[in-house]
Amino acid sequence: MKTMHRERLEEIARRLENATSGPWAYTNSSVVLSVASLPYREIANCREANGRGSDLTIGAMRNAVFIAHAREDMAEMLRYIAHLEAMRDA
Questions:
Q1: Torsion angle, CA of 42/47/50/54, rounded to 10 degrees?
Q2: 47 within domain boundaries
Q3: What are the CB-based long-range contacts (under 8 Å, 24+) for 4-9?
Q4: Least CB-packed of 35, 39, 46, 71 within 10 Å?
Q5: Which domain holds residue 46?
Q6: Which of 48, 42, 73, 78 is closest to 63 using CA atoms?
């Protein structure tokens, strides 16, 4: 497996820091900022263009679920990588 250089990890961390703070959630095909009060603040819309507008498809909903979890998943992975690096360097 190819080694991931420190610069690449820092680039990923910067994108994470610059993203809208969470928590994120999804509703149908939209990724939204999950807040206690409505209306939701839409972060992304995953509807798929079909030439007539856009469709709410299973793929669009799966994409919304993936994106909605990406912020927390990336933060957790970066923490785990830091933990593994600390163990390696100890």
A1: -50
A2: yes
A3: 9/78, 9/81
A4: 39
A5: 6-89
A6: 48
